[in-house]
Design a protein that fits this description.
heterodimer; A: mainly alpha; B: alpha/beta; six-stranded mixed sheet; four-stranded antiparallel sheet; 25% strand; binds adenosine-5'-triphosphate; binds magnesium ion
Chain lengths: 256, 246
Amino acid sequence: MKTFITFLGRITINILGEMGGMAVMLAKTIILTFTPPFRIRNLIKQMEIIGVNSVPVVLLTGLFTGMVLALQGYYGFKKFGGESLLGATVTLSMTRELGPVLTALMVTARAGSAMAAELGTMKVTEQMDALAAMAVDPLQYLIVPRIWASILMLPLLTGLADAIGIVGGYIIGVKLLGIDPGIYVQRTIDIVQLRDITDGLIKAAVFGLLLALIGCYKGYHTKGGAKGVGEATTHAVVIASIAILIGDYILTSLLM
Amino acid sequence: MIDLIDVHKSFNTQHVLRGVNLHIPKGKTTVILGQSGGGKSVLLKHMLGLIKPDSGQILVDGVDITKLSDKKLFAIRKKFGMLFQDAALFDSLTIGENVAFPIREHKRLPEKKIQKIVKEKLALVGLEEHAHKMPSELSGGMKKRAGLARAIALDPEILLFDEPTTGLDPVMTKKIDHLIIETQKNLNLTCVVISHDMASTFRIAHNIAFLCQGVIAVQGTPEEIKNTDHPVLKEFLEGFLRHQEA
Ligand SMILES: Nc1ncnc2c1ncn2[C@@H]1O[C@H](COP(=O)(O)OP(=O)(O)OP(=O)(O)O)[C@@H](O)[C@H]1O
Ligand SMILES: [Mg+2]
């Protein structure tokens, strides 16, 4: 029992310590964002790596999510004759929840892990020190562009996922299950508001910040060779995924 | 000019530097000797503020860099060029781009001029043919030389070299030694070199400092060092001096 309490205590201290470290990194990032030199080229490169390169996987995820939402939703609505609400339900689920969350999880797996691995390798091979030795702040050169690229690209990727998910839902609902297209579209337009979309995009930006901050933090504080890099990468993905899910709950309750 | 005053540094329970006092004179080459794992690389990183001491002062041209803000520290680092023990080349850039990196960062020069400097510096270390290669395509000694070319790319006032000749063949070692001697003399640079190679040490050094048990145990000119009565340092020199007499 006592060891268990010690164990809990240590975990709590660890978590608080890491959160503190991330808060400091975030604060420095904000300051360095407005301090020249501005690393526009690095930002654009990261936007390509994080954003453009994630498009295929995000489209695929969005499409199948929209399709399965329609299939599953129809099964429920049919029981009380509410099929006409299917379009609105699919759209709301996509834009408010699944679009941002699934996009963020996919980008975490693709780009968050890569950030931790790449920065971790640079750390353990002294490339970070070499940057600093050449009077280039590694935080400004490597981390600020990654965090901003992630914040900027996540809403765009989420928008894509939303759009293709809605199309997927329409295809299943109208073409496969035979709901009247006019009613499907009209009810969707009646019910869904602009805020349902923008709230989701705000969420996506916050998730982008979370996944990049965690990936960069883990990479920047890597210790101990190849094994350390592996651990940093795993931790980055696990912690970012959990942070996104918890953050989603908090944001949903705030934005409702 | 660099002065270390009573510098202490521990990693966890390991007390690596235990009150280092060291004066690095301006415009001279100082070689630091010491046992493997004794803290030489850690000491060198302190001079750039890459590692902060637990206590003590590090004065660079009279400014204590342990107390500086990040911004001022980065400004001071522009005076330095550093070669890391494992070269620490950026593995996402070619050798040429590695050498060009500090130039691009700190000077506004036309591309042609940059390429000219890169070519020049790579030629000095015998790598002009390899500018287009990635670091992963180089041998250990070639990486080291590329790191050296990058360290001198901006002709900095102070050069810190962590074992510049370890892993090089005797001919290349001599070539690098001469490069260090020439650059130091021509530009009147302050050089700090860590070395395990006694022949090379006595070729390049104006001053020698011996790090032992976390302190500078002996410090002096090459002649003074040759006549040391410090038992460990004597052992360091034994093989070399006997070889020299023969
Ligand atoms: N970042 C670090 N974290 C923990 N311990 C470290 C760290 N850097 C160095 N050490 C320890 O400090 C001691 C001195 O290391 P250092 O690299 O300075 O040795 P060295 O004198 O350069 O040896 P060599 O001649 O083999 O390069 C070593 O025992 C090493 O384990
Ligand atoms: Mg060393």
